[in-house]
Amino acid sequence: MTQRKYAARSSWKRIVKRHYRERYLETTSFTGYVTRLDLIEVTHPLLVRYSEQEIEIVGDGYSWLQQFPAGQKHVVTTMFNAHGQVIQSYIDICLRHGRDTTGIFWDDLFLDLALLPSGECLILDADELETARETGLVNQDQYAAAWMEVEMLQHQIRTKELLFQPLALARVHHDLLNEA
What we know:
By secondary structure, this protein is α+β, with helices and mostly antiparallel strands. The protein contains three helices and ten strands.
């Protein structure tokens, strides 16, 4: 049983005031849901540490764009600071994503990629995936599929294959949902 997560992050107590919107797109360059969560006011910032650097990914005025490309086993979250600059892109590897009565979801397979503005691409939470396999939260096929997805994404990012469409379209989708 994978862990189900929702785009609206309704249960996230850190967010005092928010604005959430979503849209289904069918274009030549992207098909799937896109969501935008504006973190108008938060109780306190959230910082993450990647080896030598610390990045603030949540703060007043920040926004998170999520792209759910149809038929893919990943979700891309691009985080923007209060000045509209990209802080990082975070790719959740998932079993599936879609919409249910609660909203847009993804069934998380624990393994993630973080893409930093420096161009560095980090594999994250391999230990969580390993633990999930050992405890039966994911089976061997799901475990292998998660690693295959990461390898495919790393190749696309490294070779700039189609400029990895979700990243190339992050600003466009962010601005599109600004109008919604």
